[in-house]
Amino acid sequence: MSKLVTFKQTGESEVLEISDVMVSAPEPDEVQIRVHAIGLNRAEIMYRRGEYVIEPTFPSRLGYEAAGIVEATGINVSEFQVGDSVSVIPSFMFTEYGTYGEMINMPARAVVRHPDNLSLEEAAASWMMYVTAYGALIEYGNLKADQNVAIRAASSSVGLAAIQIANMVGARPIALTRTSEKKDILKSAGAADVVATAEQDIVAELHRASGGEGIHIVFDPVGGPEAASLFRSMASGGAYFQYGALDPRDINAPVMDVLSKHLTLRGYELFEITMDDEKLARAKAFVSEGLRSGQLKPLIDKRFTLDDIAAAHDYMELNGQTGKIIVTL
């Protein structure tokens, strides 16, 4: 028997239930993993609340990320062996699979053998955030050395991943955060500069931080009216990647800046990368190299046990973490 987290109705964290279930043998194209660590993601909170892009089918599973040891493989799987240390990359829907359990079956294409220098907890904290940031900055944004990238919600796990990826390619990451409370943390995490958007003039500060060049790429999970200040701060030909809607109000894009500087606004989501085999292969190679070299190093904020999964969700909803929340098994 294996513990599995599900929910039978949407709502607050108390709807999460832990039960003992029998786990079937893996299907021909699946890998069975004994989970040692789970990485939490905001999508799981939204799904539990009924606010995600897909509707739950009850009882619903949860979880996009995990790391553990291969227990068995399907008959069509040759790239993994029993005993391998592996991680799960989000490339499926919650209606298909979930990682909140002691023993899980995953599609082989969503599994990756991670570098030996990573602990299982670090591995569980890596793939959602690094692949999300990689897709916008590298695959689509073609971020280059010496370019300026403005990163909103920079203390989130994806924000910190974007800082590291920018540094990995020699670009200049400028962290945006609401207040100066996390300035020192963000600087120590690799930010070249930090702008406190609720305390400072965003346009003036980004002009200063970019050395007057402007921002070549904006990486933004927030949106809303405040986005206008970022558009005004962009360099000619700049690209604005919107990958979330923490502020659900419409984005304000000043039309004269968009026209005169030939700016691009693009909606972006992780699954553009993870559902495309060629793009996913490039992402795996880039992130694996960064993790192996130490240029990418996941920051873990806090750990919970599986029995405390509701408390872990509550903690994420406080929006105070810097880095990844991990559940250990």
From TrEMBL:
Pfam families: ADH_N, ADH_zinc_N. Keywords: NADP. InterPro entries: ADH-like_C, ADH-like_N, ER, GroES-like_sf, NAD(P)-bd_dom_sf, Zinc-ADH_QOR/CCCR. SMART domains: PKS_ER (SM00829). Residues 11-327 form the Enoyl reductase (ER) domain. One of its GO terms (molecular function) is oxidoreductase activity. This is Zinc-dependent alcohol dehydrogenase family protein. It comes from Yersinia enterocolitica.
